[in-house]
C-alpha cells in the first residue's frame, strides 16, 4: 500500500493558555481533495497553517511525502515544503500583469519554460487572452483564478486553500468550486481546503473532516458525513436536518409519533430515549401517512422546503418537488418516514 502524501498525527497548536487544535489526526492520499469543515473558531485554519509551516506546533507530527516537516521544537520552512497556497484575499501583485503574477514562482525556469507553463496554467483556469491585464482590470472570480494558476504553476505536491471563495457571490462560488475539482484532478495535485460551507465541501472533496472546538469530530467521505454522522454535532452542522424523539422498543425498533423504524440490531436497551435524525428528503408525502401542520414553505425553484409542526410542538423539514404549488401555513400535509438508514443519538449523549 502506498504511503499517504500528508499525515497529521496528534496535532496540537496553542496560543498562550488557549489550545486551538488538540489531538487532530488524519491522512490524505496522492491526488485526493480534502476539506476541513466547521464553524468559526473550531481550529480548521490553524490546522491548515500548521501544515503550511506558518504555525509552530506544541504536540504531534506532520509528514509530507514521507518527510517529517514539523514536530515540537522543529519546523521545516514553508518554502521548502513544496506547497501551493490560495487565500481568500487573492494576494496578487497589483503592479504585475496576469502572466507575470503566474510566472512569479517560476524564476528557476528558462524564459521559454516559463511562457509554456504560464500559458498552460491560464488555459487550465480558462483565462486565455487575459495574460496582459492587471489585477484591477479583472473581476473577483477572475482574480481568484489567477491566484489558483499562480499556485499551480510550480507544480506543488500539495495545494492548501483557506476559504478561497468566501468573498465571491453564491453562484460564482459554486461554479468555481466545481471547476477547481476538475483542475486539481487534471493537474494531479492533492489539496486540503478550509471552509465553513458544507455544500462547498460536499461538492469538491473526496474526504471531509468536521472540526469541533479544536478536535476532529469525523474524517470521512462526504456521503458518510451526511448520511452516517458520528455525533449529533456532525449531524447538525453538515447539512439540513431535524430530530424526532423516539423510544427503543422490546422488539428492537425505535417507536416515534410517525411510526416505527428498524435498521438491524440496535446498540441500546429497550426503553432508551433517542433523537432520530431526519434529513428533508427522509420525509415523503404519503396519502396514508401522518397528518402534520405546515408552518412555512420555502419555494426554491426545483424544490419546496416545508417546515412541519409535530403534535408536541417540535418541527421537521420535508422537501418536495417544486412542480406543485407550495402548501400554505396551517394546511395539513400527510407524510411518512423513509430514511436510507436509522441514525439516532441517545438523549444522554446530547
UniProtKB/TrEMBL annotation:
Organism: Alcanivorax dieselolei (strain DSM 16502 / CGMCC 1.3690 / MCCC 1A00001 / B-5)
SMART domains: AAA
Superkingdom of the source species: Bacteria
Domain (ABC transporter) ranges: 6-238
N-terminal signal peptide: none
Gene3D superfamilies: P-loop containing nucleotide triphosphate hydrolases
A GO CC annotation given for this chain: ATP-binding cassette (ABC) transporter complex
Matches recorded under InterPro entries: AAA+_ATPase, ABC_SmlMolc_Importer, ABC_transporter-like_ATP-bd, ABC_transporter-like_CS, ABC_transpr_FbpC, Mo/tungstate-bd_C_term_dom, P-loop_NTPase, Transp-assoc_OB_typ2
Pfam families named in the record: ABC_tran (PF00005), TOBE_2 (PF08402)
Statement: the UniProt record of this protein carries the keyword Transmembrane: no
Protein name as catalogued: ABC transporter-like protein
Keyword entries, A-Z: ATP-binding, Cell membrane, Ion transport, Iron, Iron transport, Membrane, Nucleotide-binding, Transport
One function term, GO molecular function aspect: ABC-type ferric iron transporter activity
Annotated PANTHER family: SPERMIDINE/PUTRESCINE IMPORT ATP-BINDING PROTEIN POTA, SPERMIDINE_PUTRESCINE IMPORT ATP-BINDING PROTEIN POTA
One biological process term in Gene Ontology: quaternary ammonium group transport
